[in-house]
Amino acid sequence: MILHLHTDSRFANYTIEVFGKENSFHLIGLRYPNQELRFVTKQSHVNTYVFGWNSPEKLLAKIKPAMVVVHFMDIRWYEFLSVLPKHIKLVWIFWGGDGYSLPKMSENLYDKYTSQGFKHANTVSKLDKMKAELGIKSVFNFPFFASLTFEFLRKRRTSGSSEKIKNEVYSRVNYCGTFLKEDYELLQSKYAFSMKWIDARFISLEQLIGNSGDHISGNNILIGNSCTMENNHVDAFQAIQHINLDKGQQVICPLSYGKDLGKYRDWIVEEGNRCFGQSFEPLMQLMPLNEYTQVLRTCSHAIMHHNRQQAFNNVLALVYLGVKVYLKPENTIYSFLKRIGCHVYSMNELNNVTQLTPLSSSLVDENRKLLRGEFSQQKIRESAVGIVQLATKKDG
Prior knowledge:
By secondary structure, the chain is of the alpha/beta class. The chain has 2 domains: 2-202 and 378-390, 3-Layer(aba) Sandwich (Rossmann fold); 205-375, Glycogen Phosphorylase B (Rossmann fold). 40% of the residues lie in helices and 14% in strands. The protein is built from 17 helices and 13 strands. The protein has helices at 12-19, 56-63, 78-82, 112-116, 118-122, 126-134, 142-157, 162-172, 181-190, 205-209, 233-239, 263-276, 289-296, 312-321, 332-339, 361-374, 377-390; strands at 2-6, 24-30, 46-50, 67-71, 89-93, 175-177, 196-198, 220-223, 251-254, 280-283, 299-304, 324-327, 345-346. The strands form 2 sheets. The chain has a 7-stranded parallel β-sheet, covered by helices on one side. A 6-stranded parallel β-sheet has the order 10-9-8-11-12-13, with helices on both faces. Strand 8, helix 11 (233-239) and strand 9 form a beta-alpha-beta unit. Helix 11 packs parallel to helix 12 (263-276) and helix 14 (312-321) crosses helix 16 (361-374). The longest helix has 16 residues, at 142-157.
């Protein structure tokens, strides 16, 4: 039996589907008992686990897994993983925010203007962050108080500092799963973890793009993917200040979710309005994936000013749809896409550009062909099979 540990995210359903029911059991981490799932569909082989409340020892004794696969290393899984017996293999699926939460991986993430505006992030209320995680608008309700109570209980039950436990858990990992081998190589250059790399990809182009159409339908400019400081929003605004916008062209900035909601978002909206006036369009409400993809289709250009891997699914969709994507060269997504031959561009190439030009149809076709090869349903199945086989593989 393989035990999969998930957070309640919109992408978890894809992973649950690709591994199927046979010899796989999935747990969705919750913050308090009877918390409603926001994204994951409850099934016979899918159950919930309340952090700091359910006993990991009892659960492991009941399921008897040969291997545990943790899909995003949420800090709340540390207690569970810290008691995992040595004979049970541990596979960590590196998503981004989990690996880059390690101290040496989180260095130099913020550019000049974002660093100067750090005071705005420091004023973000922890209450706002909790509301965002829970998907609620007010603290005066049961989910908020239940979450607060059980978060306190979880911390009381966890022995040792979170940093100590974090290092022990990551040192315990046998395999790091990601198709972005550049992330794994960066991690290994900073830490002496003994984990090995394995290819892991669980979302096909068909699932990601859906029925949104094959071509873009506008000339808008997308900046970033979420309301987190790692987007370096204001630095991105400055990077395109010298570019002439066409009539009706909008600068679209997704700010509906992320860890830095609150006054940081207010600051981004203020700066966006100052830089672009009525051409600035912040997205403040979370929307279904298919609707969001429709918004992406109105963009001919995307500016992703992250210094680390973030928003890969967004970038993948954008490149496939035919958007001309600009990335920081230190971003491992840039390295990966260039390695496989995709036509994406460095932020440095914007310095001498005053008028944005879209990708040619021939380059769009080349990008699509490459991505179809990398993220086909067949590739997804092969990746899942490779991970399942680790459960019976004898390491040596």
